[in-house]
Design goal:
The protein is of the alpha/beta class and 351 residues long. Helix 11 runs parallel beside helix 12. The protein is built from 14 helices and six strands. The strands form two sheets. The chain has a four-stranded parallel beta sheet, with helices on both faces. A two-stranded parallel sheet has the order 5-6. Strand 5, helix 11 (265-277) and strand 6 (285-287) form a beta-alpha-beta unit.
């Protein structure tokens, strides 16, 4: 299996002409320039990304990527690995937070199982890919083979293709995988050459002793991995199946000119991998919220990202991004529907 084209191909650039036209329109609307703050910039960025005079965030395509993590053998999670599969079933039944939020937003929701330890069998609405029965224990050996990481990247790229075919105006990726805050933290440490103590957090609810143990597991994994910063090598050695699929989806969306609303810590680490591989992908990313997971700030800073919300959320699933969608919709409505000074017969400061 070969890597998706989006892994190596140049990333398109948002349309500069539409950006300038959107900036010009913002100066004509019945408000002091800049008075709507970041809502103005959101609308301008979306106009450039969508190459349109009327940016929109009505057609939202969501995908939750799930997979198990062999590093759970090290005792780094407060929850058993079986919860991954149980939550996939909950997604299928519509009972999870992202299920509720996707209905609220009238968004399309896909659920993909990249690989659980226990086979799940058929679940309605779940794309059961089962690339591997979870990853290997990253503290002791490479988490994935080249074929496995390639398959996960291709699975994510295929989601981006489906989103493009459906006319998506915005993409949101979510994650589910017990142990994946450890995986995300070690990936970020390797890519940023940062200290595990700065990036490891409580995840699903570890106490201080649990976090200290997590830090030591991450140190062992980094020692095993060495100094290789190549994104594919890092992802293969240390990553998770769902994080690789998220990376593939983000790059696939950028390649297809679909704006992405990035969720919390796990998805932001996938975004970091994507940006380190193709720096141009950064121009297609909006960052939804600041996670309560402590390592998120370091990852956001590395991409010069300012999240829209700070609500203390740390659930994952794409839930924080889903909550932020209405901000993008409001930004588009204001940009598209406000009167200009001339339309409203209102004097502007030049008058």
């Amino acid at each position: 299996m070969t890597l998706p084209a989006s892994w190596t191909s140049p990333v398109p650039v948002p349309d500069a002409a539409y950006r300038q036209q959107a900036l010009d329109r913002q100066q004509l609307l019945t408000k002091p320039p800049g008075s709507l703050g970041r809502l103005e910039q959101l609308a301008v960025d979306l106009a450039a990304q969508q190459a349109t005079h009327r940016p929109r965030a009505d057609q939202v395509h969501m995908a939750v990527f799930a997979g198990d993590h062999g590093v759970c053998d090290e005792g780094i999670s407060a929850f058993p690995r079986a919860v991954t599969g149980q939550m996939i079933a909950n997604f299928a039944e519509g009972g999870a937070a992202i299920s509720v939020l996707s209905r609220h937003l009238e968004a399309t929701l896909e659920v993909l199982n990249l690989g659980t330890v226990e086979p799940l069998g058929h679940l309605p609405g779940v794309n059961n890919l089962q690339i591997a029965p979870g990853t290997a224990n990253l503290a002791q050996q490479p988490a994935m083979t080249h074929d496995q990481v390639t398959a996960a990247l291709c699975a994510g790229d295929a989601v981006a293709e489906r989103a493009a075919s459906a006319g998506a105006q915005l993409f949101i990726g979510g994650d589910m995988g017990i142990g994946n805050t450890t995986t995300a933290a070690v990936l970020a440490c390797a890519l940023l050459n940062d200290d595990p103590e700065a990036l490891a957090g409580p995840g699903t609810g570890l106490d201080a002793a649990g976090v200290s143990h997590k830090v030591e597991v991450i140190r062992r994994a980094l020692q095993r991995h060495g100094d290789n910063r190549d994104p594919l090598a890092v992802l293969t050695s240390l990553g998770g199946l769902e994080i690789a699929a998220l990376t593939g989806a983000l790059l696939g969306c950028a390649a297809r000119r679909i704006p992405v609303l990035v969720d919390g810590f796990i998805v932001s680490v996938a975004a970091l991998v994507a940006v380190r591989q193709r720096p141009g992908a950064r121009a297609w990313l909006h960052f939804a919220h600041r996670s309560a997971e402590p390592g998120h700030d370091r990852v956001l800073a590395a991409m010069e990202a300012r999240p829209l919300l700070d609500l203390g959320m740390r659930l994952g699933e794409g839930s924080g991004a889903a909550v932020a969608v209405n901000l993008l919709r409001a930004a588009c409505s204001l940009h598209n529907s406000m009167a200009t000074f001339r339309d409203a017969g209102v004097s502007n400061r030049e008058d």
